[in-house]
Amino acid sequence: MIQIDGYKIEPGVNLTGANLRQVNLEGADLREAILCLANLYGANLARANLTGADLGQCRMATASLAEARLDRANLWRCVLRDADLHQAVLRKAALRQADLSGANLSGCDLSEANLQQTDLQGANLTGALLSHCNLQHADMRTAQLAQADLRFVDFSGAQLLDADLDGANLTGARISEAQLAVVKNRYSIVMLETADGDDAVTHVYGEYHEPFSGHAAGSRDESASGVDADAHTAAAGSAAAQTEIESDAEPLAPYQPAAQAEELANEPAAEDTEPEPEIS
Is the full-model pTM beyond 0.85? Predict the structure, then answer.
């Protein structure tokens, strides 16, 4: 066990709301630690062990988590804008509504992670492992996904405008033709047929009726390029409309650590002041 700025650094420690801005925690053992609502802006957590840690709503913009272990960690609504997570391990991590815009996730292992509604605009996911990930309604505009493993990923409702999918493997992924029409390097994408044949592929991809087999390289004629351009414009308008609709949605309840939730549960319920109706 070590101490930094008066805080104990050890497995299972409770650091809820701690101010650890720009501290050096390289290689620290914080397995199962509670760091929700903590300020870790610009902190050095390279090669730290955060397996199973609770980092809900933690502020970690520009922090270094290179080669860190975050298996099964809770990073709900965590701010990781422009953070360095290259070669980090986040298998089965919960990253719902996290801000990873501009983050470096190259070579990162995100297998089976939950990335619903996550902001990945401009993120670098080159060579990342995202097989069986949930990317429903994620914002992946301009993200770099070259050579990424995207097998069986659910892209339902995700925004992929100008995302670079050069050589990415989308075998079994749930993605539509409209989404593929607006990405970069779509003709180098790997889409292997499933074991059940073409019928199963058509079912998985919905509108996508021309599945690739292996590397589908080559080019299309000018008329096909014109169709892609029209689809690109239409998809961009659809993405803008979706963003406007979601902005009017009722905000989610704020994050509550377990201790606060228990206190609220023990408070007496408010009395019902509405009089009962008289029976005549």
Answer: no
